[in-house]
Amino acid sequence: MLRRLLLTAAASATAALTAVPSASAGTPAPPPAASLLPTAAPAPPAAAPVGLSSLYTAARGGMEPAAMPPPARPEDSGDKLTVTVQDAGSGADGTYELGCHPAGGSHPRPAEACDLLDGNTTWGKDLFAPVPPSALCTMQYGGPATAHVTGTWAGRPVDARYDRTNGCEISRWNTMVPFLPDLMS
Questions:
Q1: In contact, 152 and 127? CB cutoff 8 Å
Q2: pTM exceeds cut of 0.70
Q3: What domains can you pick out in the chain, each with its CATH number?
């Protein structure tokens, strides 16, 4: 496309120069200067902005390999969390690693946990935010279970604590099942 545009512009300039009458009315105009005729694609300037050299390559009709990012490695994934659960009983206590994209780790239900986290991740909202201090919560006790979550999710650091000391905290815990163990049964 750019090559066609450059050739069209050069042809238009050539036509305009040949159509200009010469100083003497009876003599034909001299042929255009050789430097005005397209002979080869221009070379990109030495300090071309990134991406501009590919436009020059396209204008020349040549194909240069595009720079490709390196393949993703599991250890480079930004979505890795460590969950430490205590006092939950029934075999739920322990420390679990969870990696997403792809799902894996020592978490007992990695695919379901990653699906839950992905489905509840919203731009501009902290998925792991604590209950606001001004929240009005029911005075009920859901047990001594606690969870501590650390790591990185959606490019942001995570350091969140969960417990079941009142209705708000119980609800917050339950919205994170199966990422956190299901203690409702």
A1: no
A2: no
A3: 2-60 (no CATH), 78-174 (3.30.350.10)
